Amino acid sequence: MNVVTTNLPGVLLLEPKVHGDARGFFLETYREERYREHGILGPFVQDNWSRSRRGILRGLHLQHPQGQGKLVMVTRGSVFDVAVDVRVGSATFGQWYGCELSEDNKRQLWIPPGFAHGFCVTSDECDFVYKCTAAYAPEHERSILWNDPAIGVRWPIEAPLLSKKDESARPLAEQTGLPTV
Questions:
Q1: Are 86 and 26 spatial neighbours (Cβ–Cβ below 8 Å)?
Q2: 130 part of the active site
Q3: Which of 8, 17, 52, 134 could disulfide-link 68, Cβ–Cβ 3.0 to 4.6 Å?
Q4: Residue 28 gets which letter from DSSP?
Q5: Out of 30, 64, 130, 140, which one is annotated catalytic?
Q6: Would you say 18 and 107 are in contact if contact means Cβ atoms under 8 Å apart?
Q7: What is the share, in percent, of the chain residues with pLDDT greater than 90?
Q8: How far apart are the first and last CA of the chain?
Q9: What tens digit of pLDDT does each residue of 41-67 get?
Q10: Chain center to CA of 135
Q11: Per the residue annotation, which of 30, 35, 61, 140 is the catalytic one?
């Protein structure tokens, strides 16, 4: 597995080793000791799977307290995936990292607790799967405005399809009680 560090401390782009031939391919999507060597600590307590169509944007989401680390990947289609550092006091507070995750590149992104996460579907349809280090707790869920100009994510879409929750999200500057470093 190739591990690529990003501009955000702790956020890692993972490129699993793919074994393929004319019959198809095989890869490990998770092996505890291998991921632990790179600072990706479990335990993982919940796996999620979402299906979305082109133009849907989900995010920017986080939980606090009861922050979730997320190990994300795409099994069908493609997304532009984003992590934003929202840890108050961090040297990279408000900065973002984005990359393509797809069924073709088979990459994974590790997003530690304290970071907001979102993705925009860039294929006709997409299956997005992820492991979480904490269970979903709706009372701790937070949403940050997907196009907050102070963050400046360069999404590949100007008018995404959003949930009501994401439509009403507030900018980072208006958020209170965020995680700290």
A1: no
A2: yes
A3: 134
A4: -
A5: 130
A6: no
A7: 98
A8: 29
A9: 889 999 999 999 999 999 999 999 999
A10: 16
A11: 61
CA separation for the pair 120, 98 (Å, rounded)? 11
- Listed residue (63, 86, 66) closest to 171, CA to CA: 86
Dump pLDDT digits (tens) for 92-143.
999 999 999 999 999 999 999 999 999 999 999 999 999 999 999 999 999 9
User: Could you give the CA distance from residue 5 to residue 95 in angstroms, rounded to a whole number?
Assistant: 15
For every residue of 77-91, DSSP letters joined together read: SEEEEEEEE--BT-T
C-alpha triplet 56, 145, 130: angle, nearest 5°: 50
String of DSSP letters for 107-167: -EEEE-TTEEEEEEE-SSEEEEEEEESS---GGGEEEB-TT-TTT----S-SS-B--HHHH
Q: Which two tokens stand for residue 142?
A: 């937070």
Identify the band that residue 90 occupies on the pLDDT scale cut at 50, 70 and 90: very high
> 106's torsion region: left (phi>0), alpha (psi -120 to 50) or beta?
left
Token pair for 128: 């997005």
Taking the model in full, what pTM does it have?
A: 0.95
Q: Which residues contact 174 (CB under 8 A, 6 or more apart)?
A: none
**pLDDT value at residue 20:** 92
| The pLDDT of residue 42 | 86
What's the chain's Rg over C-alpha atoms?
Answer: 16
Task: Find where tokens 């190739």 sit.
Answer: 2
Q: What is the pLDDT of residue 13?
A: 98
